[in-house]
Write a structure and sequence with these properties.
Helix 1 runs parallel beside helix 4. The model has no long low-confidence stretch (mean pLDDT 86). 75% of the residues lie in helices and 0% in strands. By secondary structure, the protein is mainly α. It is built from five helices and no strands.
Length: 163
């Protein structure tokens, strides 16, 4: 078995993650403009991307496991590309795997950063909405006496002693 299958799957994973990253950039714009309809549609697109990535990741995992088994290595529960690199036949294969792994990790790291930014922007938007709602709500009348009323400086009684 060659590493070509693993490289092909990793290339597809990188493309899907790049596409997901583009959606994350669009999400940032929708959050900035407050376009809820666009954001709703984008979330549906994101879900289909995540499903495809999950499927590709399962294929990658299986291909890595199969490669390691073909080399006579009993793999752990989660076989990695790094393990494949250690037992690759040639330095060129190792280099190709390392390059594909680094490119994929770079896209994933960028995607994480963009998603963190989007999450912070949404949180700030929610804080702003809550603050605005708090300012618009009528404040309840104070039920308890204040400190000055209890001490008698403004406390007045309406007791009529002419009875």
């Amino acid at each position: 078995m060659s590493i070509e299958m693993i490289l092909s799957i990793m290339d597809k994973l990188e493309k899907m993650h790049k596409s997901l990253l583009e959606l994350a950039y669009k999400k940032t714009e929708f959050i900035k403009t407050g376009d809820m309809d666009g954001l709703d549609q984008l979330l549906k697109d994101e879900q289909s991307h995540v499903a495809a990535i999950t499927q590709l990741e399962q294929q990658r995992q299986q291909a890595v496991t199969d490669y390691l088994k073909a080399k006579g290595i009993a793999s752990a529960e989660h076989a990695t590309v790094a393990q494949v690199m250690e037992v690759a036949d040639t330095p060129i294969e190792q280099l190709k795997l390392d390059e594909a792994r680094k490119k994929l990790l770079l896209v994933i790291e960028t995607l994480k950063h963009q998603n963190d930014l989007n999450q912070k922007m949404i949180f700030q938007s929610l804080q702003f909405v809550n603050m605005t709602l708090d300012m618009l709500r009528p404040q309840p009348d104070q039920i308890n006496y204040s400190q000055t009323e209890v001490r008698g400086s403004t406390l007045k009684t309406s007791f009529d002693s002419q009875a």
